Amino acid sequence: MSEKHFQRTLVTAALPYANGGVHIGHLAGVYVPADIYVRYLRLKKREVLFICGSDEHGVPVTIRARKEGCTPQQVVDRYNAVISKSFADFGITFDNYGRTTSPIHRETASQFFRTLYDKGEFVEKESEQYYDEEAHTFLADRYITGECPHCHAEGAYGDQCEKCGTALAPTELINPKSTISGAKPVLRKTKHWYLPLDRHQEWLEKWIVSDHPEWRSNVMGQCKSWFDMGLQPRAVSRDLEWGIPVPVDGAEGKVLYVWFDAPIGYISNTKEILPNDWEKWWKSDDTRLIHFIGKDNIVFHCIVFPAMLKAEGSYILPDNVPANEFLNLEDDKISTSRDWAVWLDEYLRDFPGKQDVLRYVLTANAPETKDNNFTWRDFQARNNNELVAVYGNFVNRALQLTQKYYDGEVPASGPLTDYDRDTIAEFTGVKAEVERLLEAFRFRDAQKEAMALARIGNKYLADSEPWKVIKTDPERVKTILYLSLQLVANLAIAFEPFLPFSSKRLREMLHLGEADWDRLGATDLLPAGHRLAQPELLFAKIEDDVVEAQVQKLLDKKKALEAATHKADPIAQTVSFDDFEKLDIRVGTVLACEKVKKSKKLLKFEIADGLENRTIVSGIALHYDPATLVGKQVCFIANLAPRTVCGVESQGMILSALNYDESLSLLTLDRPVAPGSHVG
Can you name the residues that pair with 39 across neighbouring β-strands? Predict the structure, then answer.
C-alpha cells in the first residue's frame, strides 16, 4: 500500500531490556534512526505517535537480582530510570516511554493471551525440562550450566556456550548443574502453551516476500531463511516466578514468555497515553505501523508478532520493519557482559554537550544493511573534518563576516550573477532528495545530503571571496552574504531531524524561530534588515589526547577482563620441602641500576644484601626504567651459583611475577625490612 493511503503513522522502537544501561550500539541500531524519522514526520506536520518502553520481565532480570541480593522489581526500577534519562539526554522524543511491569500492560498482555486461548490459537504440549529438586523449581536455560559438548569449556549456559558461541539445548550439556543450588537437575514433565507458527507460514511468506518487496534486503534475507527451515511451534509460557501469570486454570507457577509479553508492550504503552483513542492507532487500516529494531529482533517483529496480531484478528500489521544490523566497537563485537561498550551516561560525562556529535557519527556509520564499526579515531575525524571543518566552518564564516561588515544585520541582495543562480539551483533541490531518502529509511544517505548544503556554502564563499571583494565592490558582498545566510538558515532546518541540539542553537543565533520544513530550499528565510545574534562556534575540535584516553579506557577494560578470566598455567612438578629449604631467598635494597650495554632486555643491579653487597643481572629492562628502581626493596635468591651474562657476573636472581599478557611485576614488600632479611 502506498503511503498516500495512510492518515497517520505509529512508530515503535524496540523495548530495551531493563537489566543494564544504553550503549552506542542500541542508539545506532534503533533509537537514533527512529527519532530521525519521527522528527521528520512531525516537521512534515503528519500525524505520528512514537512509542517505546522498558522490557522488564524474563530470566536475565532474575539472574541480576539474585547476584545483587535484591528483588527483580528493584533491578528494573533502577535501570528504567537510567535508560529513560539516557534517551532524554540524547533527545529521543518518545510520546510515551512505558514499562512492561505496569498494571495496564499486565492487563493488556493477559487479555491478549486469553483471547487467543479462547479462540483455540494455541496448542498444549507436555515436555521434559530440567528441575532443581533442592530449590523446588523448574530451571530456565540460563540457570543451568555445564560442560560444552562442542568445545568442552566449563560454565556453558543451557542456551549457549559463551566461549565457542554454539547455541545449545540444556539437555546437551555435560554434567549440568543448577546455578541456584549447585545441585544436579533432573528432568521432569511440564505443560506449556505454544503458538503454532507452522500454521501461519503460508500467509506470512506471501505477506512478507510478495507484498513487501521494498523491505530491506537484510530483513528479507533473514525471514526467508526462517521460512526455508520451516516455522515451528513456539512456547508462549514458561515456568518462572518473575513475569505475568498465565491467565488460565492449571497454570500456577507459569508466566508469559518474555518474547510474547514484550511486543504487546507497544499496545499497552499506547493505551497508557491514549486510553480512549488507542484503537485508531492499532486497528485502523489508515494507520501505518513501523517497527524500528535491531537484527536480533527481526524474527519477532516480522514473523512472531504479526502471527500473534493476525491470530487475534482485530489489529493491523506492520507496513515496514527497517531493522539495522549490529554496530561493532573498535573491530570487536559490543558486549554488555564484557563491558565492551560505550555507555551513553559515560559518554556525556566525558563529552558534555556533544550529543549531536555522537548522533552524527552513529548516523554516518549506521549499520543499515550490514554490520558496521565505530572507532574513536573515526569519531574524531568526522567531528573535526566534517562537523567542524565543513558545517561549522561555513556557518561561522558567514555569520562572522556579516557581523564584521554589517554589524550582524542581513544585507539586502543586489543583482544575481549566473554563479549565484547556479548555487541557488543546487541547494534548492536538496529538500526533495533528503525527503526521498528519509521516506526510504536511508538515514545515512539523507544526512549526507543535508551536509551537502554546507559543502555548497563553503564552496560558494571560497569562490566568491567576499573578504577580497569588499575592497573593490562592496555592493557585490551584500549579495554574497545574503545568499550565504540563506544557506545557513537552510542548514538549521535540514539538520533538525539529525542534529536537534545544534540546530536549535543555530536557529537561536539566527533568531529564526521554529524550523519550518516546508520552507527548506527557500532563498528568503532571513529578510534584509533581520538582526542576527552574536555568532558562536557550533562545534569544537576534538584533540588527540581526548581520543587516546577513550581508546585506553577500552583497552583497560579488555585487559581487566582477560586478567579476570585467565586460567593460570598448570602447577609444576611437586618438590619436597627439603628441596625448597635449600633456596635462600632474601630481601635486598637496590643501590644502583643501569642498562647492560649491547642488550635491550638486561638491567644490572647493585644490591645491598646486609653483608658485602652484590651484583645481579635481570632481564626486566623492557618493563622498568632503571632510575625508578633505585631505593626499592626486592626479593632475590641469594645462593644461586654465579654466572656470567653479557660479560657481567650475576650473583643471584631477582624474583618477579610474569602475567598472562607477558607483562612483568617485581616482588616487593608492603613495609621496609633490613637488607638480608630472609623470605619464607
Answer: none
Question: What's the pLDDT tens digit per position in 63-87?
Answer: 889 889 999 999 999 999 999 999 9
Whether residue 565 has pLDDT greater than 80 = no
What confidence tens digit (pLDDT) does each residue in 398-421 have? 999 999 999 999 999 999 999 999
CATH topology of domain 577-666: OB fold (Dihydrolipoamide Acetyltransferase, E2P) (2.40.50)
Q: Provide CATH code, domain 375-567.
A: 1.10.730.10
CA 468 from chain centre, in angstroms, equals 48
**Closest C-alpha to 428, from 514, 493, 478, 480:** 493
Q: Is the Cβ–Cβ distance between 129 and 188 less than 8 Å? A: yes
Over its C-alpha atoms, the chain yields an Rg (Å, rounded) of 33
**What are the domain boundaries of the chain?**
3-115+256-329, 375-567, 577-666
Which residues 6+ apart lie within 8 Å of 538 measured at CB?
Answer: 387, 391, 392, 395, 396, 502, 505, 506
For residue 338, what is its C-alpha cell? 564484557
For residue 375, which amino acid is it? Answer: T
Residues β-bridged to residue 255: 238, 245
The set of cell numbers assigned to 37 is 524519522
Give the Cα separation of 485 and 527 in Å (integer).
Answer: 10
Spatial separation of the C-alpha atoms in residues 410 and 413, rounded to whole Å: 9
How far the first Cα of the chain sits from its last, in Å, is: 83
pLDDT of residue 167: 77
Task: Read off the C-alpha cell for 312.
Answer: 487475534
The pTM of the full predicted model, rounded to 2 decimals, is 0.84
Q: In what order do the strands lie in the sheet with 653-654?
A: 614-618, 603-608, 585-595, 633-637, 653-654
Whether the CB-CB separation of 256 and 113 falls below 8 Å is answered with yes
The predicted-structure confidence for 241-274, as pLDDT tens digits, reads as follows 899 999 999 899 899 999 999 999 999 999 999 9
586: β partners: 636, 678
pLDDT at residue 143, as a whole number: 85
SS3 of residue 534 by DSSP: coil
Q: CA-CA distance, 530 to 192, in Å (whole number)?
A: 70
pLDDT at 2 over 60: no
Closest by CA position to 193, among listed 153, 159, 237, 160: 237
